[in-house]
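STRUCTURE:
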């Protein structure tokens, strides 16, 4: 693992670094589009590279179910299978197992769950999770963790971090490749449990550290408080990944606390639900105000969608449930995210991050309201 911090903000914990992998350098802070099954919903994988992203996140749990990690391995791994030349982070699927499989049964050996495709019972162990990710040949891998619900009690969360510690050790011992492996910090909103989980992960030692179990209903203030607290104990020479955190305002505030890596379904999921992100805030394409609008989604944006299509046309497609509307809106939202993260990096480099944060959030909030 090679991670170097090249720029630090003098007024916060924001930083710009580089993670080196065989697939190329990842400049941080970085946002990874969610490509669960190998592509973002409503878009082709080629759209991701044309927007400017160099790193995506793919879900090992879903690809284990279909088409199967061994089948993908015959293609030469995920990069060849997807025809993607950039970096790939594979999520082990711990969160998906518990959120999608209501009949999941957890034990010390692993998790038994029923496939949502055909109902077949599967057992995912830490060892199998690493086997799957190494067959996929991703650049960055995640341990299998026990991710409890956000409203779980103290005892359940304590059990989860003890189990995650055991699974983390087994995950690291199972690794045969040089693929970089991240540990995951759990602990809910309990600071003492967060600190205990951090100590577990640091004792085992990983290439990077992820903050798990946030953004699950605990509230924005609690998310920020726990993120800041967790970052204060994580080593400065390793990348920090805030799993699933991805609203624009959350990214900026988390960068301020020292987070380096983000992923979230927000830009594409919200596009499919009619929400567009602009430099002046969010807009709802369902609003009849836009039915006769000849304006682009964002007059300050130079993306393909904003340069070629009006809000009126996009609303027309969306109201008729045309697939093209979902594609255009998803592209526009991801372009916004790529511009945002690029602007964050530039502001850290030139020493204007705090001013950028203030200006962006004021403009974004006013537009949203």
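SEQUENCE:
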């Amino acid at each position: 693992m090679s991670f170097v911090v090249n720029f630090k903000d003098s007024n916060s914990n924001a930083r710009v670094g580089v993670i080196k992998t065989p697939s190329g350098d990842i400049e941080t802070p970085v946002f990874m589009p969610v490509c669960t099954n190998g592509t973002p919903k409503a878009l082709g994988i080629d759209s991701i590279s044309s927007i400017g992203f160099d790193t995506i996140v793919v879900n090992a749990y879903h690809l284990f179910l279909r088409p199967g990690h061994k089948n993908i391995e015959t293609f030469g791994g995920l990069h060849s299978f997807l025809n993607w030349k950039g970096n790939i982070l594979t999520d082990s699927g711990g969160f998906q197992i518990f959120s999608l499989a209501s009949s999941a049964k957890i034990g010390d050996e692993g998790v038994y769950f029923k496939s949502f495709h055909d109902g077949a019972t599967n057992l995912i162990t830490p060892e199998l999770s690493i086997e799957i990710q190494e067959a996929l040949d991703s650049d960055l891998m995640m341990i299998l963790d026990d991710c409890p619900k956000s409203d779980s009690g103290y005892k359940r969360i304590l059990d989860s971090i003890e189990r995650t510690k055991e699974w983390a050790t087994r995950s690291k011992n199972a690794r045969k490749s040089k693929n970089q492996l991240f540990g995951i910090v759990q602990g809910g909103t309990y600071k003492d449990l967060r600190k205990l989980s951090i100590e577990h992960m640091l004792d085992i030692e990983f290439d990077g550290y992820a903050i798990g179990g946030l953004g699950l209903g605990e509230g924005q203030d609690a998310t920020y408080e726990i993120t800041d607290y967790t970052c204060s104990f994580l080593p400065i020479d390793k990348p920090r990944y805030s799993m699933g955190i991805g609203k624009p305002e959350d990214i900026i505030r988390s960068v301020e606390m020292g987070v380096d890596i983000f992923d979230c379904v927000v830009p594409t999921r919200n596009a499919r639900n009619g929400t567009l992100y602009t430099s002046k805030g969010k807009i709802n394409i369902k609003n009849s105000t836009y039915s006769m609008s000849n304006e682009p989604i964002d007059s300050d944006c130079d993306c393909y969608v904003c340069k070629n299509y009006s809000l009126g046309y996009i609303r027309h497609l969306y109201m008729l449930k045309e697939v093209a509307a979902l594609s255009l809106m998803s592209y526009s939202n991801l372009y916004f995210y790529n511009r945002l993260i690029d602007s964050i990096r530039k502001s850290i480099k030139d020493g204007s991050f705090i001013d950028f944060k203030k200006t962006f959030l004021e403009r974004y909030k006013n537009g949203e309201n």
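REMARK: The first strand starts at residue 2 and ends at 8.
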